[in-house]
Amino acid sequence: MVLDVKKILSLLNEGLEMEHASYIQYLTQAAITKGPYAEGLIARFKEIASDEAQHADIIRQRIVSLGGIPTTKVGEIQVHPNSLKAIQINLKYEKETVEFYRKLLNQIPADKPILYEAIEHILQDSEEHVEELERLSAS
Ligand SMILES: [Fe+2]
Ligand SMILES: [Fe+2]
User: Fold this and answer.
1) Contact 19/59 with Cβ under 8 angstroms?
2) What are the chain's domains?
3) Residue 129 alpha carbon to ligand 2 centre in Å
4) Quick one: which ligand is closest to 130's CA?
5) Mean pLDDT of successive 10-residue segments in the chain (139 residues)?
6) At what angle do helices 83-105 and 38-65 cross, to 10 degrees?
7) Distance, CA 94 to ligand 1 centroid (Å)?
């Protein structure tokens, strides 16, 4: 398999757009979260937001190393005043993210280990976010 640079750059920028949205989404959600369990949830949303900021930075570096320009676009953001609804929104989003990175990973040839491992790391974090949100949404 040969790396299709143009295609990978376009996918990386699509991922970067999602990471930008994700970061803002979690921080905004943390700011509007209220109720008896607010403290723990706010801390968790902020922690996840910092993972998303790290993902964005990893992707930016990979884009530049492939000769591309990192996008400043921000994907669609959804927040909700109801904490449980917010968790469900984020859970759905994280599941889509996992699917996206899994597909992206399949398009990276074995002779590109830095790129492969970067995406693998982001995929693994996203799977952890899914697990965490599933736990939080369980009644
Ligand atoms: Fe992320
Ligand atoms: Fe995530």
Assistant:
1) yes
2) 5-137 (1.20.1260.10)
3) 5
4) 2
5) 93 98 98 92 97 98 98 97 95 98 95 97 98 90
6) 20
7) 8
